[in-house]
Specification:
By secondary structure, the chain is mainly alpha-helical. It has 9 helices and no strands. It has helices at 7-26, 28-40, 42-47, 55-82, 89-117, 121-137, 150-158, 160-173, 178-205. The model has no long low-confidence stretch (mean pLDDT 90).
Length: 207
């Protein structure tokens, strides 16, 4: 079946996926916070100040990285308490957390763009969760792709979240390759390169 072996063995497989899921869902709140600020007039106040226009955006997204670190740390701590034992040691765990946070930084720009396009915080939250739920569940976070039907396996294999989970799992196990890590970093860079300028442009034109 898709899930076999002892619960301890499955925890070793599952924890990196839970780590990715817990952090990525947190990125939605970057967009929610921005929409809230826009509806309350905070964006207009920032735009009237003599500061670098994108400063509030960059500061908010960077500040959210602290939230990602907290979510990641709590997830790993709970996993260790339940019996998770990373073969890659502390260094592997820290590297996995760093990789997930870097990817989350790129994804957060997607939701800041959405946050400036949507009218209400609830719309951003609902839309973000509706997008992330299928992407995370149709990834390698919970089961091996090879155990899935062929059509689902094909989607899972090209899902960027699968690449993130695979690289994070590899870092925790001490088996990650440079190619796996590089693919995740390239995806994060691409998301940032596309959506950070788009968010900035929308922010400048807001109001």
């Amino acid at each position: 079946g898709a899930i076999a072996g002892s619960t301890g063995e499955y925890l070793q497989y599952l924890l990196p996926g839970i780590l990715v899921m817990s952090v990525l869902f947190t990125t939605v709140y970057s967009g929610v916070a921005l929409t809230t600020d826009a509806t309350k007039g905070v964006v207009d106040r920032f735009r009237s100040l003599p500061i670098w226009p994108p400063a509030p955006l960059v500061g908010a997204v960077l500040g959210d990285s602290v939230r990602y670190l907290v979510a990641a740390s709590v997830t790993v701590a709970l996993g260790v308490a339940l019996g998770f034992r990373p073969q890659g040691g502390l260094g592997g765990v820290l590297a996995a957390i760093a990789l997930v946070v870097v990817f989350a930084f790129g994804l957060a720009w997607v939701f800041t763009t959405v946050g400036l396009l949507m009218r209400t915080p609830s719309a951003v939250m609902n839309g973000g969760f509706m997008a992330l739920f299928p992407l995370t569940f149709l990834s390698s976070a919970f089961v091996e792709p090879r155990t899935l039907p062929a059509l689902l396996e094909a989607f899972v294999e090209v899902n960027p979240i699968t690449h993130l989970v695979t690289a994070s799992r590899g870092l925790m196990e001490g088996t990650a390759t440079a190619g796996e890590i590089g693919l995740v970093l390239a995806t994060a860079a691409a998301l940032t390169a596309v959506f950070a300028p788009l968010t900035t442009r929308l922010y400048r034109s807001k109001g």
